[in-house]
Amino acid sequence: MLTNYFADLHIHIGRDIYDGPVKITASKNLTLTNVLKEASRRKGIDMIGVIDCHAPAVQAEIELLLQENMAQEIPNGGIAFEDVTLILGSEIEVYDEHCKGPVHVLCYFPTLASIKLFTQWLIGKMKNVTLSSQRYYGSATDLQNKVKELDGLFIPAHVFTPFKSTYGKGVETSLTEVFDPKLIDAIELGLSSDSTMADQIKELHGFTFVTNSDSHSLAKIGREYQQIRLQAPSFIELRRALHQDGGRAIIANYGMNPKLGKYYTTVCQKCFEQVAYKTRRCPNCNATKIINGVYDRIKELANNETIIDARPPYYYQVPLEYLPGLGPKTYNKLLDQFDTEMNIIHHVPMEGLQQVVPQGLAKMIIENREGTQQVQAGGGGKYGKVSSHKK
């Protein structure tokens, strides 16, 4: 029997079991155990991908959880902890001679043993395997082949962002300049794009799109996610879903309106004035640091107008903490009453919400569910803003 599950497959680790840094820019309380507890107890996410599991100290924490019977390895791949399944992943910053700039990719593995083998391989390819998103110097296709040799999954990360992504930095026009497309299992869209935008590029039509949070803090887990139809949450079932095998599939993507992403529009990094794509000097402040927007880059690459009917729906949502007037105390009141954020966002009716929060805030939560918020576009590293929908 197939069941629907929520999954967020791109979550960082801030600190390891020895209080050492992993993702330096991530929150210090973003430990593996805290991530698992947050996803299971507060977020209501059924499957999470932690993409710093190549770090030996993160592996040591997994081993400790297994030894203490707080977690169990799943026969079909993954680690079970309470109500969440951990998918073991690694984010790599690729420096290939064919890249125009560095490119981030996501690699996932079925078992602790397989990702340990990947770590040993990486040691000869990068300087500091203890940290997140480190530089890999070598062939991108060699990396893809190694992942496949270890029975893993390979997904280019946040492919349109202007820094360290496939289309934003790595290639002129096609991912085939760097990657073997036959060894790609899915495409991660990133915060400033959605399925309709990405499908303007014809070579992406054959890939499943994933939407993930790229979380650097506990609160951001589930900022973007997907609903997946599986027999049970495990690595093998995830792979089958990415390839739409045996009824397994991603059935819905949930993400922020692309205009809320911090790289949606082309913006001057100094004064945040919106400027024309590929402007060299800001007409407002004369600065030369211009951040090209995802919207404009996709328009530049667009070579197809066909609507892909087979795509799952893409729903615009934001985490509850993004809603104006919904602070930590109110958030905790909602969790006390309704258990998890997924439950609040997807299931609690208006009358139930009004018993806990004011009518205006309850209305905004429903608008969030329906994707009808008004937004102000972001750009240049500055997020957009959400406000209540006006009838």
Structure summary:
The protein has helices spanning 32-43, 56-67, 112-123, 140-149, 166-170, 195-198, 235-242, 294-301, 328-338, 341-346, 350-354, 359-370; strands at residues 3-11, 47-50, 72-73, 79-81, 84-95, 103-109, 135-137, 153-156, 187-188, 209-210, 225-230, 249-255, 267-268, 290-291, 314-316, 374-376, 385-387. By secondary structure, it is an alpha/beta fold.
Write up this protein.
The protein has 391 residues and is α/β, with parallel strands linked by helices. It contains twelve helices and 17 strands. The protein folds into two domains: 3-258, Metal-dependent hydrolases (TIM Barrel, Alpha-Beta Barrel); 259-292 and 319-387, 5' to 3' exonuclease, C-terminal subdomain (DNA polymerase, domain 1, Orthogonal Bundle), CATH 1.10.150.20. Strands 1, 2, 3, 4, 5, 6, 7, 8, 11, 12 and 15 form an eleven-stranded mixed beta sheet that branches. The chain has a two-stranded parallel ribbon with strand order 9-10. A two-stranded antiparallel ribbon has the order 13-14. The chain is globular, with a radius of gyration of 20 Å. The mean pLDDT is 93.
Structural class: alpha/beta
Oligomer: single chain
Tell me the helix content: 25-40%
What fold name goes in the CATH topology slot of the largest domain?
A: TIM Barrel
Total of helices: 12
> In angstroms, what separates the terminal alpha carbons?
42 Å
Can you give the mean pLDDT? 93
Shape: globular
Q: What is the number of beta strands?
A: 17
The CATH architecture assignment of the largest domain turns out to be Alpha-Beta Barrel
* Largest sheet: number of strands, sense, barrel closure: 11 strands, mixed
Return the string of H and E elements: EHEHEEEEHEHEHEHEEHEEEHEHHHHEE
The name of the CATH superfamily of the largest domain reads Metal-dependent hydrolases
Low-confidence parts: none
* Global Rg: 20 Å
CATH class of the largest domain: Alpha Beta
Number of domains: 2
Strand percent estimate: 15-25%
